[in-house]
Amino acid sequence: MEPDWDDLKVFLAVARGESLSAAGKALRRDPATVGRRVARLEEALGAPLFVRAPTGYGLTEAGGRLLAHAEAVEQAVARGAEALRGEAAGLSGQVRIGAPDGCANYLLPQVCARIHAEHPGLELQIIALPRVVNLSRREADFAITVSPPAAGRLTVQKITDYRLHLVAHRDYLENAPKISALEDVPQHPIVGYIPDMIFDAELDYLAETGAVTVALGSSAVSVQLGFLRERAGLGIAHDFSLPFVPGLVKVLPEAVALTRSYYLIRHAGDARIERLSRVGDMLIAGLRAEVARLEALT
């Protein structure tokens, strides 16, 4: 018996969720039913597709070979559905975007709102996580990262550079010890990421401040800006976030000036899907324009 598309959907869900329960949730089926479908597929193909362990389901060598073919079928089905819907005129369907919370809070809402205004049939979802979104598990269709991935069957496009500076609330600076050089910074409380929760080396800004500890830390950029808004100390902030927090000003802008980059990541095969390809192009263009607009206000 040759596997049909429904068999492959079950296989993909288990491969990505690494458990019957996660696959069942994604498919809206009972985990026991998912387990029976996997067993039936393995019997039909005459090879084990998964290694069962207490920690979950891992792909065997045969399962790894089937994965690429199953994803190719998935992409072909998606392209066919788009052609039937006539999406050359207007896009529709769900698109999920994972991004660091700075981008998710201060850039993506404006960009996605404009895309949706042009394509009201789209369902755009933003996932803001203090980690890199796992595309292999299909947590999202796109991931925006601050470092390009080192491995994987992925398409990587640089979106834009963005700038960060040392900042503080002007009221804090009026009442705190004077800051005229980088050597003065360690006298002040530093706001930043929790050091052992930094998930990308590009987010480790502490050394740039000349300080050795973070007095007020959070894994979320929005919380860090909240500390700074409350006159709690100094911190590194994205220039594009400053228009959202009135009162924050740059400190020693010549001495502490950082440049980082955003990258758009997707599965390599997804670039051939019209809907995702067009949304990806709109995300890149929109993010570039929004970073430039907001940075020009600071």
From TrEMBL:
Keyword Transcription regulation: yes
Annotated HTH lysR-type domain residues: 3-60
CDD domains: PBP2_LTTR_substrate
Pfam family, any one: LysR_substrate
InterPro entries tied to this protein: LysR-type_TF_proteobact-type (IPR058163), LysR_HTH_N (IPR000847), LysR_subst-bd (IPR005119), WH-like_DNA-bd_sf (IPR036388), WH_DNA-bd_sf (IPR036390)
Record bears the keyword DNA-binding: yes
This protein's UniProt keywords: DNA-binding, Transcription, Transcription regulation
Recorded family membership: Belongs to the LysR transcriptional regulatory family.
PANTHER family xref list: HTH-TYPE TRANSCRIPTIONAL REGULATOR (PTHR30537), TRANSCRIPTIONAL REGULATORY PROTEIN (PTHR30537:SF3)
Protein name: LysR family transcriptional regulator
Species of provenance: Sinisalibacter aestuarii
Organism lineage string: Bacteria, Pseudomonadati, Pseudomonadota, Alphaproteobacteria, Rhodobacterales
